[in-house]
Amino acid sequence: MGIPTAPLSTYAFKEAAEIGFGDDTPFIYTKHPVVGSPDDVLMDYIKGEDPNTGKIVINEIIEALTKTPQKKEAASRQQSDTRKGFLDPDTEDNLQQLFYEKGWTDGLPVILPTQERVRRMLAGTSAFPDDVVSEPSPFNPVKVTVLDVARVAVMAGAGPEHFPVILAIAATGERAILGSTTPFACMVVVNGPIRNEIGINSGVGAFSPITMANSVIGRAWTLLGHATGGSRKKVTIWASQGNGISYNNLCIAENEERSVWEPFHVQKGFNAEESIVSIFRGWTFSHSMGAASLRSYSEEVAILLQAFSAFNASATIVMDPSAAKIVKENEGCNTKEDFSKLISEKTEMTADRFWKTDYVDFLTGPMADKGVEPYASWKKLQVDEKIKPFHDPEKINIIVTGGETGPYFKACDFAYVTSSSIDKWKAAADDVCTDGSCGLPDAPVDYD
Amino acid sequence: MTENLISNVMIPEINREGGMPETAYLSTPYTVADRPESLDNKTVYLVDTGFGGSSKFMIQLQNWFTENMPKVKTVRRRKPGGPLMGFAPELWNEIKEKGDAAILGVAG
Q: I need a surface site. Which of A24, A277, A416, B93 has the fewest CB within 10 A?
């Protein structure tokens, strides 16, 4: 900045501060937590000891601004660029334990990615093993190849038929688990013919842990994050309580055959015959409080959404086909867009309640400060004036999934993130590698 | 009975080839600014990063300066643009122009 500066963090984020800024930056640490702590506790933090040095925090701050700090030599940030190949031969138990200890698993046993298994997985695509699936980005700083994804897909228990979907998810470059203290979670929704070709459940128990395709595809995405070396506690995993959704990322298909509305991927401009995977991300996921027996579905949805953060006005509603049918017949919603508009109109809360939500304060507040509407206007309202926090119906996504054994729904504050083509990763019918020409490296050892 | 050994198990870890891109780091190489001998009659900006609790923390820090170092002028500001990413050139320029020092924080 060019002037004396004292950077502060709570001690719980020491590793993050050093990863993000390098360990040559002289951070001062307070006790943790700051968020939610009363004023007298925060003053005690200021007058109290830095948990890292034992020195008084305010003295360190004044010293940092009046005495030139000794700049430490930054540790090398260069990572190894040696692409390793194989593990030494070992027993099943030892290898499972090694995978767990290395942080490559979700804690459940994995299918060990032997060369033969990975080769079979690669038969699920026409892409070459070295083809790049996603390029490095600030939040996902690795280049991911088809071979990388194949190893992970094996570990997750997937078969070659699932591989194109997993590649399509990987191609988004998005991570299933973000390095946030909050319990971010994701949802995976598959549309198009591949749903039925590989048996992705969109009917009874679509979200339940009972269907192979849903389980292994969703799990593979989380394991891909682990394999990038990024999913490590207090390195990039910071969620204070975490989120069990991340085991398989709510992987479902849309029940296009039973839906009274157009499929989600068609809403996004894709052809109905294309196979597309879409991903969503948010924090809060809730099931309906039974059916809408005594109120309308739009009222039931609004009741749940009033408890959500409404960050960026985003929400996703997953309707059982039978519930969607009732909404169409009883509430006049001939399209998903009609239902989104109705939900947007019916969901209200006071300005005070909206702005006192933590996520809204630190994520939406800056938008209001920049003059982004309607947030800038909402900042000027009296505390008891009503707003419609889900003000943009286009950000209220509607998915239809379920087996019609009960007209229920689920509501979440998940935002639509992106969609990705599955078809581009599918194998041509005559393109199956059986002779090693698909490019897998030869095994370095022969073992009896 | 001896357990069978499994060979040719591939390592799943994806290397960060060539290291992380520079954009992955929030910081750029920096130099250390000269320090004043004292903060008396200096203006210190207290910059709240925008994370939950940051604003309340900076209010308490401002209270401490008012009570214990009244010759220090403090200016409390919130970094615009949200706490997670992004820079705030207008605020940084203001601090460089009008301030003598800055305290940045605090998350968690």
A: B93
Q: What span, in angstroms and rounded, lies between the C-alpha atoms of A30 and A50?
A: 5
Of B14, B25, B59, the CB nearest to A229: B14
Q: Is B16 part of any domain?
A: no
pLDDT in tens, A432-443: 544 444 555 554
Domain presence at residue B59 = yes
| CA dist., res. B24 & res. A138, Å (int) | 4
* B25 touches A at CB < 8 Å: yes
Chain B: closest CA distance from residue A9 (Å) = 5
Residue B35, in any domain of the structure: no
**Inside any domain, residue B80:** yes
Best interface-test mutation with A: which of B37, B60, B85, B100 has the largest number of A CBs within 10 A? B60
Tell me the one-letter amino acid at A224: L
Would the CB atoms of A33 and B53 count as touching at under 8 Å?
yes
pLDDT (tens digit per residue) in A320-363: 999 999 999 999 999 999 999 999 999 999 999 999 998 888 88
What domain range is B68 assigned to?
A: 40-105
B81 close contact with A: CB closer than 8 A: yes
